[in-house]
Sequence to fold (306 residues):
Amino acid sequence: MVALESLLSLSSFADGETFASRNAMEHTKRLILLAALLAGTASHASAQDVGEPAVAPVSAGVPIQRTQRELVLPEGYVRADLGLTFGDANGNARNGEFFAHDLGGGISLIENLEFGISLNREWFWPRYGGGVLPLFWDGNHVHFLALPIYARYQFLTTEHVAIAGDVEMYLRTHSHGPTRHAFRASLPIRFRFNSFMIDTGVTFEVETNDAQANIYLPAVFTFNPTEALHFRVSTGFSALDMDKDFLAMPLFFGGGYSLTISDILADINLDFGFPYLVHSDFGGGDHSSPDIWMVKLSVAAYIDVL
Fold:
């Protein structure tokens, strides 16, 4: 730039310009120098932009909006979840009342595959009684209940549909209650329509101690009025102990809120309902059991660790 200024100065004096002409030339030189300086600065900033791409937002892996999520965690993510459930007359507690503390989680190390120990996976109606730390109080004693070890692979992903395969070994660690070890094979299906979502599918369960076979057909309807707030209704159909034709239909109402804390996305959910609102009886006929109820408060945190 110094050489450019010197060249312009020599040229003006060689031609014998007047004082006014020299002032005009000085003004022109300053404009040229300013333009060259601005061009150099813009070029340097452009080079920095190319070398340092913009950082993605915290929630780019797991969407804040519940109705836009997949059935599995994004690759490199960990989910830690905790469910606190209490209710009355569920059939497992001796005195009718119970309290369950289910701490679990999952992780995805490769794309579309998730595995972990948890019953708090989405797409089913609210459940309890399993995790890494599954504590169950039956009104008299506390039991370490069961370890639900699972793996889930999402093999179909489109804008509006997601389908996965889910296998689970439900390992009972205490003899309390009617259910023992079980194997579960599921086909979760998710339909997404902007702020509305439907989760359905089928679960086939075999209880290993007495070879009892059960089938579950969940249906969960979720609506996001805002990006962070959601409401849902969970129901479905279950055929328990198929040899005896025991049928049941649950009904739950719930909702939740999602928020970001530092680099962590967190969900807070609350559900209330009736596990056996309508059911058949082994002796025949249909019954309603609104006195069998439960409330579940659950939280989940999603962290990008890889």
